[in-house]
């Protein structure tokens, strides 16, 4: 696993760990994409509420059969 520089990790969390961005774009991502993004944000210490926003916003647009992919 590569070592992620602290500034890069902080910039990633600041940029992608944003509820407004999640609300505007999460439905454009695939289930896999949003899950990996949420995992990365969580691993880098993003606010758990912001991580949850990505998953919940994306799941709202999912069909019933896809909703279990984000639990």
Structure description:
- This protein is mostly helical and 71 residues long.
- It has one domain.
- The chain contains four helices and no strands.
- The longest helix is centred in the last third of the chain and has 14 residues.
- The mean pLDDT is 89.
Strand content: under 5%
Question: Helix count?
Answer: 4
Shape: elongated
Number of strands: 0
Strand pairing plus helix content: what structural class?
A: mainly alpha
Oligomer: single chain
The domain count comes to 1
Order of helices and strands: HHHH
C-alpha end-to-end distance: 26 Å
Helix content, binned percent: 55-70%
Radius of gyration: 12 Å
Average predicted local confidence, pLDDT: 89
Q: Biggest sheet: strands, sense, closure?
A: none
State the low-pLDDT regions, or none: none
Summary keywords:
mainly alpha, 71 residues, elongated, 0% strand, 4 helices, single chain, 63% helix
Short account of what is shown:
With 71 residues, the chain is mainly alpha-helical. The chain has helices at 6-16, 19-25, 31-43, 48-61. The chain has one domain (6-70).
Structural topology:
Elements: H1 6-16, H2 19-25, H3 31-43, H4 48-61
